[in-house]
Design goal:
The protein is an alpha/beta fold. Helices cover 34% and strands 25% of the residues. A hairpin with a 2-residue loop joins β5 and β6.
Length: 165
């Protein structure tokens, strides 16, 4: 029973924190400004400070869908593939042929949460890895190509287009 009450309290705190602090950065700024204002106050408010930092990390991980940060999921591909949320790290084997990875910009962007997609060519040959959005563009172009052994790219989406970092 105590666990259920504790879960309800944490859920209510999370909802009220979201209403008062639209982003976790604003909650952290509040904590840094008012809770950690001086060494004496920081020591006196150590428990509150610890709870607020833990709560902000918990809310961040809940929004990201994982513990702390979103858990990266790895897959190795060797043929043309459409990216899905079951993996966000793609090791691409081009031993047999060139490979195209198609990414839907909407799949990797949900209400302000950006999921990074990592793509790496893991074979040393002349075959290439072509990254193509299913709609929109990638850096303003229709595709992005990896041609060099161990070349990699990090991709993000704004819901409409893809961008490399």
């Amino acid at each position: 029973m105590k666990k259920i009450v504790l879960i309800l309290i944490v859920a209510c705190l999370g909802m009220s924190a979201k209403a008062q602090f639209p982003t976790m950065d604003s909650l952290r700024n509040f904590t840094n400004r008012y809770i950690r204002n001086s060494a004496v106050e920081a020591f006196q408010n150590l428990r509150l400070n610890t709870v607020l930092n833990g709560l902000s990390r918990f809310i961040d991980s809940a929004r990201a869908g994982g513990g702390g940060a979103a858990a990266d999921k790895l897959t190795t591909i060797s043929s043309n593939t459409t990216a899905s949320t079951t993996a966000n790290i793609y090791l691409v084997n081009t031993t047999s042929n060139s490979v195209t990875l198609t990414i839907n910009p909407n799949t990797f962007y949900t209400s302000g949460t950006v999921i990074k997609i990592y793509v790496k060519k893991i074979t040393n040959n002349f075959n290439s890895v072509t990254i193509t959005p299913s709609s929109g563009t990638i850096n303003g172009a229709s595709s992005y190509t990896l041609t060099v052994y161990n070349e990699s790219v990090t991709i993000i989406s704004n819901g409409t287009n893809l961008f490399t970092l």
